[in-house]
């Protein structure tokens, strides 16, 4: 969609050659710059406030000047993409036949959108680095149907659902098959003040590492990955996720939740520090293995070498009567359900 940034008439956009840089100021149209840029170009944003959504459908770098480059809701009266119409901020959109490859989003803030700050679908090798996504209605940063992504050193806070959400498809019941991300990495992010710090759903070949997840209603949800390659949750700090969030259509109230595995298979949870998560939700506690609402059991998951202390009602818990082959090995903890896992 055309995007007016700021007020008044649009200033002309600086031209660029393939692989070059295009500077866009807050009184210029960001969408026009994106539309005019050759694949491989870099769109450079200055400090200031840019109003409206922007949709990227080709290989580009969108680079701001840090947190003071801010993208917020707004319209210029032009046509909007479906993604923008849905209330998303930055949209990265490919197709099933031709995923958009090599998009990079760096060093900016996106805030206050009705749905999602950064929404990506059908992408390959997407990089979202040093982005602040805050106070968006649903997710801070979200991606589906995509491979080999890198989400690093971002901050997601105050979002209505998950700070970072990755899934096979966004529509919760549209597809039950686990999607192979071919090596997506979620690393070094700070997730605070959201309903859920991070959710990954029906994905394999994915690594979640070195993230700080604190001050949410729930820390990390890993939901229904089944036989599509390894999923590893390692070396994260997940502590004091003790905000209260009321029940939703799909979940009970959330409070005091560290890391939860729901209907998972062959997930490795290792070397995490999970501390002081306390509440009375069915999911409350440190590291929890929980049966899915669809009756899918947890199988052959390994929880080992974690520091899990001060969580209530338990540091470690298995709340899945049908689960089998799940292992708790060499964790430092004090309480477990059933007793004996510490």
From TrEMBL:
Keyword Repeat: yes
Domain annotation Right handed beta helix: ranges: 87-223
Keywords: Repeat
Superkingdom of origin: Bacteria
InterPro entries: Beta_helix, PbH1, Pectin_lyas_fold, Pectin_lyase_fold/virulence, SCF-Subunits/Alg-Epimerases
PANTHER family: F-BOX ONLY PROTEIN, F-BOX ONLY PROTEIN 10
Protein name: Right handed beta helix domain-containing protein
Species for this entry: Streptomyces griseomycini
């Amino acid at each position: 969609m055309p995007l007016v940034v700021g007020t008044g008439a649009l200033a002309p956009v600086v031209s660029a050659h393939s692989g070059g840089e295009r500077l866009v100021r807050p009184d210029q149209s960001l969408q026009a710059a994106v539309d005019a840029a050759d694949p491989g170009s870099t769109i450079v944003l200055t400090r200031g406030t840019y109003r409206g959504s922007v949709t990227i459908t080709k290989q580009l770098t969108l680079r701001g000047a840090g947190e003071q480059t801010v993208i917020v809701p707004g319209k210029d009266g032009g046509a909007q993409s479906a993604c923008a119409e849905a209330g998303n901020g930055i949209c990265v959109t490919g197709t099933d036949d031709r995923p958009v490859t090599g998009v990079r989003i760096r060093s900016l803030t996106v805030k206050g959108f009705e749905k999602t700050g950064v929404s990506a679908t059908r992408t390959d090798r997407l990089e979202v680095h040093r982005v602040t996504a805050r106070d968006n209605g649903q997710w801070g940063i979200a991606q589906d149907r995509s491979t080999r992504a890198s989400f690093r050193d971002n901050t997601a806070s105050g979002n209505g659902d998950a700070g970072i959400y990755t899934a096979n498809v966004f529509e919760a019941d549209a597809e039950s098959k686990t999607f192979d991300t071919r090596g997506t990495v979620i690393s070094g992010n700070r997730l605070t003040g959201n309903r859920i710090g991070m959710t990954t759903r029906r994905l394999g070949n994915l690594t979640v590492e070195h993230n700080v997840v604190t001050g949410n209603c729930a820390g990390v949800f890993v939901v229904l990955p089944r036989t599509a390659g390894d999923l590893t949750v390692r070396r994260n700090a997940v502590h004091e996720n003790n905000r209260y969030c009321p029940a939703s259509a799909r979940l009970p109230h959330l409070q005091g939740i560290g890391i939860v595995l729901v209907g998972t298979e062959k997930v490795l949870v290792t070397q995490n520090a999970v501390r002081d998560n306390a509440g009375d939700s069915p999911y409350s506690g440190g590291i929890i293995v929980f049966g899915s609402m669809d009756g899918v059991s947890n199988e052959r998951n390994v929880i080992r070498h974690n520091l899990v202390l001060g969580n209530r009602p338990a540091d470690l818990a298995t709340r899945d009567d049908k689960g089998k082959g799940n292992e708790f090995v060499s964790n430092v903890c004090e309480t477990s359900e059933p007793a004996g896992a510490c």
